[in-house]
Amino acid sequence: MATTISLLPEKHFLCSLCRGIFTNPVTTPCGHSFCLSCLCQYWSRHLSRYCPDCRRVFTDRPDLSVNRILAEVSDKYRKAQPQKPPDEEKVIDVEQMIQERLQKIERLKKSLDLQKSSYLREVRESQKVFSALVNAMEKSHKAVVAAIEEKQKEEEMKVEKYIKDIKQEIQELKSESSESDPLVSGDQNDDPKQVVMPSEMKDWSKVIIETDPCIGVTRRALSDVLEKIKVEVNRLAKAELKRTEKYTVDVSLSAKTAHPFLYVSDDRKQVRHTDKLQEVPDHPKRFDRVANVLAKESFCSGRYYWEVEVGDKIEWNLGVARQSINRKGKFTVCPANGFWTLSLKAGGQYIANTSPVTSVALENRPRKVAVFLDYTEGRVSFYCVDSGVHIHTFMDKFTDRLHPFFSPGRLHGGKNAAPLIISSSFCSI
């Protein structure tokens, strides 16, 4: 069987992206196969969902699984190939190199066209959103002015009526005074005239007109506008989160970096705090004071997305960290020390670990948190996967390789024993 496989043309076993024999091959709906890692990296670098071979665009995200039959056949073909001496020179196919570069030019042009479409789409979206907000603010302002003018007219009419009623009572009092007894003795002329107050007379000492009736009117109107802006921001965040999903990468924990109190699962997708030290070898990359762990993957360019299930945990810390961070002794988790992370504290407070820390207000408790790293633009963003709400974004300039960072938090008497779970296991579009 191995001899028969070795007689087949090599092109049947080559990934068109890396030009090597398939490793964990996956097949797209259009029938073309690629190495899983090659396809993940390709889709991470490109903005559109299409097959690298035939350029077919996928409207829905394909469910990618390793083609076991092709993987087994490719492995047998690899083993059947004669081992080349280390110093054997490779034969350069000049024509093939020219074709590859011509194809690269076409792909660059295609990417530029897609990029222009993305720019135009974003400009149109911003025009639509900001125009709607400006119209809403103008409408709210007009409503405030109309309400104030209406209130002013009501108060003017009320005061005019008060003045009219007072004048009427003055006239009645004068009338009452003139009808009093004319035969009053001379020694009484110096005394004020005594008249009986009619029972229907109003006690004007209790009538008060507020001179500052507009307290809080503009603020309340602006609060309504801010609420509309908040709704629009959340809508945009959901769309933003959807667009970042195409940069999903496979993230696995690096057991050699895990603090001895941490237990890392065999599949390297879960980490939890234990009540006793694990028997692990000492390693220069291992955290020895704080219960943290890094992913084995590191990034120095491009965009990357992964999700972490936090469930009902009452304490955790997630984000990215520089490869060169201090892992020994005590240190502060903050950007200046190479950490860009979001935390949930045991008291229920969410904070971005800036210096000083930034408190983050969340209406709903996230059970799954998404992390999006845009290395080139210097952004680390966090989202609530359940609601699509944007939580926080760090802006910085990265100069070192970055690793995904995880800390499941202390046990708190068993209340925080659940693990952090990396739920995104392979690239999707």
Automatic annotation (TrEMBL):
PROSITE patterns: B302_SPRY, ZF_RING_1, ZF_RING_2. Residues 174-193 are annotated as: Disordered. Residues 231-426 form the B30.2/SPRY domain. Keywords: Metal-binding, Zinc, Zinc-finger. Residues 15-55 form the RING-type domain. One of its GO terms (molecular function) is zinc ion binding. It comes from the Eukaryota. InterPro entries: B30.2/SPRY (IPR001870), B30.2/SPRY_sf (IPR043136), Butyrophylin_SPRY (IPR003879), ConA-like_dom_sf (IPR013320), PRY (IPR006574), SPRY_dom (IPR003877), TRIM/RBCC (IPR050143), TRIM8/14/16/25/29/45/65_CC (IPR058030). Pfam families: PRY (PF13765), SPRY (PF00622), TRIM_CC (PF25600), zf-RING_UBOX (PF13445). CDD domains: SPRY_PRY_C-I_1 (cd13733). This is (Atlantic silverside) hypothetical protein.
